[in-house]
Hints:
The protein contains 17 helices and 14 strands. The protein is α/β, with parallel strands linked by helices. The protein has two domains: about 10-345, no CATH class; about 355-510, 3-Layer(aba) Sandwich (Lysozyme-like). It has a six-stranded mixed β-sheet with strand order 9-12-11-13-10-14. A two-stranded antiparallel sheet has the order 1-2. The protein has a two-stranded antiparallel ribbon with strand order 3-4. The model is unreliable at about 1-35 and about 140-195 (pLDDT under 50).
Amino acid sequence: xLCLNYRTTKDNLKMDAWCLxxxxxxxxxxxxxINNTTMVMNMxxxxxxxxxxxxxxxxxxxxxxxxxxxxVAKSPVYTGHLSERQVNNGQILLAHKIxxxxxxxxxxxxxxxxxxxxxxxxxALLRAVIWGWKQxxxxxxxxxxxxxxxxxxxxxxxxxxxxxxxMNAEYSCDQWSSSNDQQGFSIDSLDxxxxxxxxTSLGFAFLAHGMTLDTPLTATDxxxxxxxxxxxxxxxxxxxxxDLTLAFIxxxxxxxxxxxxxxxxxxxxxLSTLLQDYYEEKPARSPFRRQEFNKILEGEDLEVAIxxxxxxxxNSKLGCGLHNITEDHLNSVIAAAVREFKHHFLExxxxxxxxxxxxxPYNGNPTLLKTPLSQIYxxxxxxxxxxxxxxxxxxKDMQSMxxxxxxxxxxxxxxxxxxxxxxxxxxxxxGWHWVGAHTKGHNTVGYGVSFIGNFMSLLPEExxxxxxxxxxxxxxxxxxxxSLNYILKGHRQLVNTSCPGDSLYQEIQKWKNFKES
Length: 517
């Protein structure tokens, strides 16, 4: 059963963001129903399982190992080359679903905590490793040779024309069911089972019953009960579109990136090696998944990919109920899906929520900002003076700053709205909705964004600058938190201080909307 969306008013938003996120979430996370597992749900556990499967199938390629894992997750009864332990562990790690109960609220199953602090759905990752983020060749196996889909773009809208063949040239639902039953669901024929890729998932997300096209595709994230030994992942709010959560998107992006490497490098590259290089290298590549995925999309038509995936799925057994959807409605759905995905997942930065870096509760009652805000103030922390390059180090720096601001300075919370680590992530301070304590006399009219480190003589690396300059600001404007004609300033322009450091101050003078006075 899907979670109910309880965020409806500003009052609910206020309660949700502070009371629920910082208090209830942790009490819910430690409670568990009888279906929960004691397995540590982190990337190391998943990679260990992959290595275990590889040892059982020593001559198998990375793709075959990935298919084997997906097959284990889909089959309630498995009779193959794997042990009962391997099968049980695979089903726990790969059964992605959203669960709701009165005792635990919304929990996301089948997700793991990555070393970079992000949460990933391994099943989405494996599908993308095998099939990519869209589906082309697999669909051709299900469609008649006499059918041709001709895609045209007309006034930014997609239209479909079937020139050869009609419904009698397609596989009917009964034909697909019959042929698939004869093939069975063996590992060798898994390619014949239509994959649910990111492209199709985006399209289906806006086809759900009662879903409106203007419903934002929010990046539903959550909190683990423990960072050192994570077992239960509590969603902060209900997914706006089915089970299309941030963990699912992360997995699909990561799998696309790893699958591309697998096709470009030697065929004997092991799946476990791919995962280790991507997640455990220092610095890790995973914090920049959105940027890497965006590069892969260059030259690709996302609308066409979703359209092809939808029609491919509609011609399969599982898509028999989709034949009554008109092409006009489908075009509108695809346009909404592409618009929302590009905004929330490709243009916006990845933000580590408070509960993930170990924030303490706010002291007192926060004050709600009146958005959009017209000012952006850039800071550096000065202390800590060294840039942090990992989730673990950046989390410690955030905790240290919060302690200093609350205990030494007597503030209600960490002062900054957001903080940029050199690991590739933004860290949520007071966030989008609450008045901060970053720029004296101006906290109600602007967001304060600080870079961790002392940047008097050095600069953050370009990818880190880009997270704020090219993603945070654009995202804030499009989301309605920042005014279109905002003004950007350095802290020193408003307060007697050397912040944000000489080098960083010189840098931000080149940024869009910087104002000297």
